[in-house]
C-alpha cells in the first residue's frame, strides 16, 4: 500500500481530485461491507446455538475500533514516526486538527478519506480472529480483547508496514493491502488465543458441522465483492494503472484458489463441497492481498493455486496437533497470508507497484529475504503479545463461558436471544384439538421413522 508521499514527483503540487476522492469513498464503503460479510461467512459455519454470538463478535468490531481509531488509532498508525515502531501526531488524535481539504501526502485525496479507508482495515482485522474462538468466549471479554489488541498490536503493526518511517516499510517489504498487517497478524493472534483458552467441549468427538451453508456462501460472495475495494483501493486512486492490475489479479487469484481447493477435495474426499468453494475463494483473496500489486495475472493465477492447495491441506492440521481453530482462521488467513507474502519474492515482476523483482524475474533472493523477515516479525510479535493479552484476561475476568452454558448454547446466555424462533411456525389463531394417539403418531413410532 503506498503511503501517499511517493506517488507524485516532488515538483508537482497535488490538487484534490473529485474522481479519486469519490472512488476512495466507494472503496471504503466496500471494505466496511466486508465485516458484515465476514459475520455471515462465520455465522453460517457454526452450530445454530452459536449463530448470533458469531455474528456479534464480528459486528461489534465496527463500534469498538471506530471509536479507538478516532481517539488515537489513526495517530499511532499513520502519525509522525517515532523510532520506526509507532507514529503520533496531535493533529490526528481525535481527528481534530485536520482540514477538510487537507490532502494525504502527495496524493489527490483528503486525509479524512484516507483515514476512513484505513479505518475499515482496522475494523475487519480483529473480527477475523473471532472465527477461531467460536462457541466458547464471553462476549464482554471478547470486546475488551478487541480494544486491547487493536491498541498494542494492530495500530503499531500497521505503522511498521505502511507508514513512512515504519521499519518494515523502510526495509522495502512489499505488502500491497494487508498480507502481513491484516491476515498474518490476525491468524497469529487467533492461534495464540486458542492455545490459551483451550478447545471446545466435544472437539474431535461431537459433530460440529455448519448450520447454514447458504449463509456461508452469501458471506463469501460479500467478501469477494468487497475485496475489490480492499485491494484495488489500496493504491489510493492514483492514475497510473496499478489499481487496475490489482483488480484483475484479485479476481484471477481468487478463482484459481477456489478451483485448487475443490480439486484437492475431490481427490482427497471424493466430493467438491460448497464450504470448500467458499473457503478456497477466501484463501485466494488472502494470498493475493500482499502480492497482487507486484505480479502479473499469470503470477496471480499461480499464487492463488498454491494458496488454495496449501490452505486446504492446512485446515486439517488442527486435528493432528490438537488446537481447536473453530472456523479455520489459522489454516486460511495465517497460512494464506504467509503464502502470498513470501511468493512476492518469487513472482514480483518489477515495474508495477515497485521496481523490485522476484527470483523468477531475475531479481535474486533480495526481495524474498525481505518478505520472509516481514512475515516472521509480524507473526512473532502478534503471537507473543496476543498470547499475553489473552492470558491476562483469561486469568482475571475469564474469557470462556461456563461449560454448561457452552453446551446449552452461548446465544441465549450471552445475548438473551436465539437466531431462529420457530415457536410460531404453522400460523393459526387457536390450537388444534389433539388427535388421538395411534401407532403412527406416538413418539416412539416417530422416533423410529427418524432413525430409519
Automatic annotation (TrEMBL):
Which residue intervals define the domain Ammonium transporter AmtB-like in the entry? 23-420
Gene Ontology CC entries for this record: plasma membrane
Which keywords annotate this record?
Answer: Ammonia transport, Cell membrane, Membrane, Transmembrane, Transmembrane helix, Transport
Query: What does the similarity note say?
Result: Belongs to the ammonia transporter channel (TC 1.A.11.2) family.
Q: What is the protein name for this chain? A: Ammonium transporter
Subunit and partners: Homotrimer.
Care to name a GO molecular-function term for this sequence?
A: ammonium channel activity
Q: Which residues form the signal peptide?
A: none
Amino acid at each position: 500500500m503506498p503511503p501517499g508521499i511517493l506517488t507524485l514527483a516532488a515538483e508537482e503540487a497535488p490538487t484534490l481530485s473529485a474522481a479519486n476522492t469519490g472512488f476512495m469513498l466507494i472503496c471504503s464503503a466496500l471494505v466496511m461491507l466486508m465485516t458484515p460479510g465476514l459475520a455471515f461467512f462465520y455465522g453460517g459455519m457454526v452450530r445454530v446455538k452459536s449463530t448470533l454470538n458469531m455474528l456479534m463478535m464480528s459486528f461489534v468490531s465496527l463500534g469498538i475500533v471506530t471509536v479507538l481509531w478516532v481517539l488515537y488509532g489513526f495517530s499511532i498508525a499513520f502519525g509522525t514516526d517515532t523510532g520506526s515502531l509507532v507514529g503520533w501526531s496531535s493533529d490526528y488524535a481525535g481527528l481534530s486538527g485536520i482540514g477538510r481539504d487537507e490532502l494525504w501526502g502527495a496524493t489527490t485525496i483528503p486525509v479524512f478519506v484516507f483515514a476512513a479507508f484505513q479505518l475499515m482495515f482496522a475494523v475487519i482485522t480483529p473480527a477475523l480472529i473471532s472465527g477461531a474462538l467460536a462457541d466458547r468466549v464471553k462476549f464482554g471479554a471478547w470486546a475488551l480483547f478487541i480494544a486491547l489488541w487493536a491498541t498494542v498490536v494492530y495500530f503499531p503493526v500497521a505503522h511498521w508496514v505502511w507508514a513512512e518511517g515504519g521499519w518494515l516499510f523502510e526495509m522495502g517489504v512489499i505488502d500491497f493491502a494487508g498480507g502481513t498487517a491484516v491476515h498474518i497478524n490476525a491468524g497469529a493472534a487467533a492461534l495464540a488465543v486458542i492455545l490459551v483458552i483451550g478447545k471446545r467441549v466435544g472437539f474431535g468427538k461431537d459433530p460440529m458441522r455448519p448450520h447454514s451453508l447458504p449463509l456461508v456462501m452469501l458471506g463469501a460472495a460479500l467478501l469477494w465483492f468487497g475485496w475489490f475495494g480492499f485491494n484495488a483501493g489500496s493504491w489510493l486512486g492514483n492514475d497510473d494503472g496499478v489499481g487496475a492490475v490489482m483488480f484483475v489479479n484479485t479476481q484471477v487469484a481468487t478463482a484459481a484458489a477456489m478451483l485448487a481447493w475443490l480439486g484437492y477435495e475431490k481427490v482427497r474426499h471424493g466430493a467438491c463441497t460448497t464450504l470448500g468453494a467458499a473457503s478456497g475463494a477466501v484463501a485466494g483473496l488472502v494470498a493475493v492481498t500482499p502480492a497482487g500489486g507486484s505480479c502479473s495475472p499469470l503470477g496471480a493465477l499461480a499464487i492463488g493455486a498454491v494458496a488454495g492447495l496449501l490452505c486446504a491441506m492446512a485446515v486439517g492440521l488442527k486435528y493432528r496437533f490438537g488446537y481447536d481453530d473453530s472456523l479455520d482462521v489459522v489454516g486460511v488467513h495465517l497460512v494464506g497470508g504467509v503464502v502470498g507474502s513470501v511468493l512476492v519474492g518469487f513472482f514480483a515482476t518489477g515495474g508495477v507497484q515497485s521496481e523490485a523483482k522476484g527470483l523468477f524475474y531475475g531479481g535474486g533472493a533480495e526481495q524474498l529475504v525481505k518478505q520472509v523477515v516481514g512475515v516472521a516479525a509480524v507473526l512473532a510479535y502478534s503471537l507473543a503479545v496476543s498470547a499475553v493479552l489473552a492470558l491476562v484476561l483469561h486469568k482475571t475476568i475469564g474469557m470462556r463461558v461456563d461449560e454448561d452454558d457452552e453446551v446449552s448454547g452461548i446465544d441465549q446466555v450471552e445475548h438473551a436471544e436465539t437466531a431462529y424462533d420457530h415457536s410460531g411456525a404453522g400460523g393459526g389463531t387457536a390450537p388444534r384439538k389433539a388427535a388421538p394417539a395411534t401407532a403412527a403418531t406416538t413418539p416412539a413410532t416417530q422416533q423410529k421413522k427418524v432413525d430409519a
